[in-house]
């Protein structure tokens, strides 16, 4: 597990089930990944979201 900070698009405060958004995630530790990698977002031991890496910003 890697902790990161999520930056939602302007004007978006909450994402509901079924919504699709583009967001920026800044990880606190470096990790190897490629575009197309699938990931899960977990909070408090529960999966609250899932996604695919669309672009890596170095």
TrEMBL record:
One of its GO terms (molecular function) is translation elongation factor activity. Keywords: Elongation factor, GTP-binding, Nucleotide-binding, Protein biosynthesis. InterPro entries: Transl_elong_EF1A/Init_IF2_C (IPR009001), Transl_elong_EFTu/EF1A_C (IPR004160). Residues 2-56 form the Translation elongation factor EFTu/EF1A C-terminal domain. Pfam families: GTP_EFTU_D3. The keyword Protein biosynthesis applies. This is Elongation factor Tu. The lineage of its organism: Bacteria, Pseudomonadati, Pseudomonadota, Gammaproteobacteria, Cardiobacteriales. The gene is tuf.
């Amino acid at each position: 597990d890697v902790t990161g900070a999520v930056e939602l698009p302007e004007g978006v405060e909450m994402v509901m089930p079924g919504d699709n958004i583009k967001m920026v995630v800044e990880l606190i530790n470096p990790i190897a990944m490629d575009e197309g990698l699938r990931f899960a977002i977990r909070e408090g031991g529960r999966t609250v979201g899932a996604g695919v890496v669309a672009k890596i910003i170095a």
